[in-house]
Amino acid sequence: MKVVVNIKLKDLVLDPAGKATQDALCSLDFNVKNVRIGKQIVFDLDKKNEDEARKEVTKMCEELLANTVIEDYEIVL
Amino acid sequence: MKVVVNIKLKDLVLDPAGKATQDALCSLDFNVKNVRIGKQIVFDLDKKNEDEARKEVTKMCEELLANTVIEDYEIVL
């Protein structure tokens, strides 16, 4: 099963990389706002059942993939 | 309009961060394969028309957001 995990900074956390990208885009005359940059982790998981897979991937996020103090994660199966 | 750009390394490009994450997950007894890590850039674009927006975001990717030599990008409107 293919799994996609999107990890992004919580809304209240400052995103300097996003701000720098926004400034760069605006300097190229692109009219963008609220640029936020996150990680996307894609992998194969040896599970047939979606509920089981979601439980396991949640564990992965909580234990390793996301820093839950400052990041939120979204699991896409 | 909210725009999501997913940027990932081309398949033939080695992904050391993905490999390190895979090893870490396996050491925690998670059975995962082919871990690949990419970027997800989210922003607001002042466009009503989807075709226009897609054309502009493609230009952003080609000019700044993606290194098209080693990265592929996907635009989600």
Commentary on this structure:
Chains A, B: Its main location: cytoplasm. Chains A, B: InterPro entries: PurS, PurS-like_sf. 2 copies of one chain form a homodimer. Chain A is an alpha+beta fold. Chain A has one domain: Mth169, Chain: A. In chain A, 36% of the residues lie in helices and 36% in strands. Chain A is built from 2 helices and 3 strands, in the order E-H-E-H-E. In chain A, strands 2-1-3 form a 3-stranded antiparallel beta sheet. The radius of gyration of chain A is 16 Å and the shape is elongated. The N and C termini of chain A lie close together (8 Å). At the A-B interface, strand 1, helix 1, strand 2 and helix 2 of A face strand 1, helix 1, strand 2 and helix 2 of B. Strand 2 of chain A pairs antiparallel with strand 2 of chain B.
Short recap of the structure:
Chains A, B: GO terms for molecular function: ATP binding; phosphoribosylformylglycinamidine synthase activity. 2 copies of one chain form a homodimer. Chain A has helices at residues 16-27, 50-65; strands at 2-9, 32-45, 71-76.
CATH topology call of chain A? Mth169, Chain: A
By secondary-structure content and strand pairing, the structural class of chain A works out as alpha+beta
The number of distinct structural domains of chain A comes to 1
Order of helices and strands of chain A: EHEHE
The radius of gyration computed from the alpha-carbon positions of chain A, rounded to a whole number of angstroms, is: 16 Å
Q: How many strands appear in the DSSP assignment of chain A?
A: 3
Shape of chain A: elongated
User: Assembly state here?
Assistant: homodimer
Strand content of chain A: 35-45%
Largest sheet of chain A: 3 strands, antiparallel
Give the N-to-C terminal Cα separation of chain A: 8 Å
